[in-house]
């Protein structure tokens, strides 16, 4: 195994770890905002590290550029989509669970 | 060169976690929960498509993954706008 192969396997392992953590958060956390908190970061980082690993492994510039397009798009699109979902959830009547200490967005839109 | 079983293993793990996300999408309890779960499944499908490109040695699947990312993002935005305002246009 060369250094590139080792790096690819390490990045794939990191990506799978973050995906699994995000999924555990999606299943176990109490309300929609905390679930989103787990999945947004876990998914973005997991997908991007797997894609970086595969782009290193491909050894082809054209393939790597296409993967880079996906990476940039994911970094831009995933937080935007989560922001839209969070705003829509709050406006459509979802509230944080009762253990929440401070509801800053609720104070702001009153 | 890595054996392709590495990519197959990563794909199988991601597909398994997708089924756990499907539990949240089915059970709910609210519509935004389902939307979050579907968004997560979409991201995992994108990564699985890129893995397919490396397993089968065809870079065509990467183009499919780019289009899938665009459609996933647009559908999420549209459904969240519908949840917020009750309509899609305007």
Report on this structure.
The complex is a heterodimer of chains A (110) and B (90). With 110 residues, chain A is mainly alpha-helical. Helix content of chain A is 82%, strand content 0%. Chain A has one domain. Chain A has helices spanning 3-28, 32-58, 61-91, 104-109. In chain A, α2 (32-58) packs antiparallel against α3. Chain B has a single domain (3-85), classed as Helix Hairpins (Orthogonal Bundle), CATH 1.10.287. Helices cover 83% and strands 0% of the residues of chain B. Chain B is built from three helices and no strands. Chain B has helices at residues 5-27, 31-56, 60-85. The longest helix of chain B is centred in the middle third of the chain and has 26 residues, at 31-56. The mean pLDDT of chain B is 90.
Give a brief outline of the structure:
The complex is a heterodimer of chains A (110) and B (90). Chain A is mainly alpha-helical and 110 residues long.
User: How would you classify the quaternary structure?
Assistant: heterodimer
Number of strands of chain B: 0
Q: Beta-sheet strand percentage of chain A? A: under 5%
**Would you identify the regions of chain B where 5 or more consecutive residues have pLDDT less than 50?**
none
What is the count of DSSP helices of chain A, taking H or I runs of 4+ residues? 4
Q: Strand portion of chain B, in percent?
A: under 5%
Provide mean pLDDT of chain B, rounded: 90
Distance separating the two termini of chain B: 52 Å
Largest interface: A-B, 49 and 41 residues
| CATH top-level class of chain B | Mainly Alpha
**CATH A-level architecture of chain B:** Orthogonal Bundle
* CA-atom Rg of chain B in angstroms: 16 Å
Q: What gyration radius of chain A follows from the Cα positions, in whole Å?
A: 18 Å
Order of helical and strand elements of chain B? HHH
| Beta strand count of chain A | 0
Unreliable residue runs of chain A? none
Query: What do we call the CATH topology of chain B?
Result: Helix Hairpins
């Amino acid at each position: 195994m060369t250094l590139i192969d080792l790096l690819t396997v390490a990045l794939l392992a990191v990506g799978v770890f973050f995906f699994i953590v995000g999924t555990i958060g999606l299943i176990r956390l109490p309300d929609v905002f905390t679930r989103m908190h787990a999945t947004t970061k876990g998914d973005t980082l997991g997908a991007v590290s797997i894609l970086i690993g595969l782009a290193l492994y491909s050894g082809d510039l054209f393939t790597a550029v296409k993967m880079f397009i996906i990476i940039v798009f994911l970094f831009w699109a995933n937080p935007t989509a989560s922001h839209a979902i969070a705003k829509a959830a709050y406006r459509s009547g979802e509230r944080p669970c009762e253990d929440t200490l401070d509801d800053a967005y609720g104070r702001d839109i009153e | 060169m890595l054996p392709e079983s590495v990519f197959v293993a990563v794909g199988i793990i991601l597909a398994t976690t997708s089924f756990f996300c499907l539990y949240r999408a089915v059970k709910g309890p609210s519509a935004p929960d389902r939307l979050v779960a579907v968004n997560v499944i979409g991201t995992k499908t994108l990564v699985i498509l890129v893995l397919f490109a490396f397993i089968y040695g065809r870079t065509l699947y990467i183009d499919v993954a780019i289009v899938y990312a665009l459609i996933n993002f647009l559908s999420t935005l549209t459904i969240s706008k519908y949840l917020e305002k009750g309509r899609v246009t305007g």
